[in-house]
């Protein structure tokens, strides 16, 4: 996927600086709208005033991951007593805004069900320990799938077991949990159901089970886990990971995905779809909104080229982690102004740049300048350009034959007349107004 191929210029852009690396897609195909997913914490939350709920984003969202919004703990506060209010509200509101896919992630064992209710190393006491009785997990999983079969189609088998705050049990305990989740999610008897009332024999089961995602694509936990379970790994239809660890160098997600793909291939998951179900720049490592907006575009472009087919951003309305919108309980924080942030605008922009386009390649030059080629049906050709070192570069019309305009991070178009200035904020240079 990535190789060193020094040269002085690339077709369409004549740039007189040697290339330090070239990234090629494993299979070039248009970026689907389903690539763009999201976490929205306060979309429908019965525990807060309506005025503090988050308005739905202005840009399209195809997938909503329900983690840190609805979970086992909040949905079954007492054994066999279910409260679907929050999950119903999120699904209804998101569906009304065009969301077609939902991911439910297992984790956060309720305190009444955990084997160690006093374990304070977890996010919540006991939430990272195995259930005392796996039948309690079956009871919840069966009720969940019966209620939402055909609505929630993707089930992630545990959140970040590579982190002890989310999983503090043994591999044997985790394997038993995942075996039960897989069986419950795939059971045809749990489909053909409406609000828990199921037709005899059930119905067609469309559900897919997702690999438990590690907190970084290079985490050694995954290799240890896959080797423990055995080759080929039998409990995942989709391979997932969390793409953290690239706060100051978003382009390096390419090397992380390459490392991850090699690991997955050793255990029979090399041809599985690869999803990044949680990532952003993190919790405050990029202090300015300009830096955050730049990061969003660069990360999305390089990751989509690297073979990741779906990405659920974390999080639209988190007060610290990857914040795109500030409001509700975050109002008043100096780092979180009310309303959409620059990164939200950048997210919408790169979504428009990528959806329906084919990323042909990306090349980094030795001065830190990146050129990524995008094409569309017909004769459309464009280049996303930025400098990862923050160095200002100048491109002249003679260096860009056939290219007539460029779009900035707000998707505003400018006709190329004289020189074009490029820095750390990407621009998209086009041969025509193709979308």
Describe it:
- The protein is α/β, with parallel strands linked by helices and 435 residues long.
- The protein folds into two domains: 83 residues, Sandwich (Immunoglobulin-like); 326 residues, Glycosidases (TIM Barrel, Alpha-Beta Barrel).
- The protein is built from eight helices and 22 strands.
- The strands form five sheets. Strands 1-2-15-16-17-22-19-20 form an eight-stranded antiparallel sheet. The chain has an eight-stranded parallel sheet with strand order 9-6-5-4-3-12-11-10, with helices on one face.
- β5, α3 and β6 form a beta-alpha-beta unit.
- α3 packs parallel to α4 and α7 runs parallel beside α8.
- It is globular and about 70 Å long.
Short description:
The protein is an alpha/beta fold and 435 residues long. The protein is 23% helix and 20% strand.
Can you lay out the helices and strands and say which pair or pack?
Blueprint: E1 2-3, E2 19-23, E3 36-38, E4 63-65, H1 72-75, H2 85-96, E5 101-105, H3 134-148, E6 154-156, H4 171-186, E7 193-194, E8 197-198, E9 208-210, H5 220-229, E10 238-242, H6 253-265, E11 273-279, H7 289-305, E12 310-313, E13 325-326, E14 339-340, H8 342-354, E15 358-365, E16 369-375, E17 381-387, E18 393-395, E19 405-407, E20 413-415, E21 420-422, E22 427-430
Helix pairs in contact: 3-4, 7-8
